[in-house]
């Protein structure tokens, strides 16, 4: 699923006059499922004593899975979401999203979460084709 970009926003993008807030709003409107997941983990990361909060519930449909993949696979979208929510996003499989507190990035918990070992441990036969 691509972003739903208004003609006005596209015109301003052509001249390089789009700020992060406008881009983030476009993402919010275009990818509502991804927005809901990321905002939920970002908000929970602020209220927990842990280094991060995560979401590991598979999306309800392929459309929602596509939104999550689009948001987290795009450097521009992912970066804008991280700046907006002031977290570092980490992603495993096709649906496990974590929001790390910025001071935790580079620490043991973060390095373990993003490691190849963690990726392998989070595989299962039902997720093979996700």
Automatic annotation (TrEMBL):
It comes from the Bacteria. It comes from Micromonospora sonneratiae. It holds the Pfam family KH_NucS_shadow. This is SCO5389 family protein.
């Amino acid at each position: 699923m691509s972003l739903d970009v208004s003609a006005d926003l596209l015109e301003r993008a052509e001249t390089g006059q789009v700020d992060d807030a406008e881009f983030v709003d476009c993402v919010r409107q275009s990818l509502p499922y991804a927005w809901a997941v990321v905002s939920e983990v970002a908000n929970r990361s602020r209220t927990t004593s842990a280094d991060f909060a995560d979401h590991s519930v598979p999306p309800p449909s392929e459309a929602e899975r596509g939104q999550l993949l689009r948001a987290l696979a795009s450097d521009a979208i992912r970066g804008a979401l991280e700046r907006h929510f002031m977290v570092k996003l980490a992603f495993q499989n096709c649906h496990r999203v974590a929001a790390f507190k910025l001071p935790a990035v580079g620490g043991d918990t973060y390095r373990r979460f993003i490691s190849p070992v963690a990726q392998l441990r989070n595989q299962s036969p039902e997720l093979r084709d996700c």
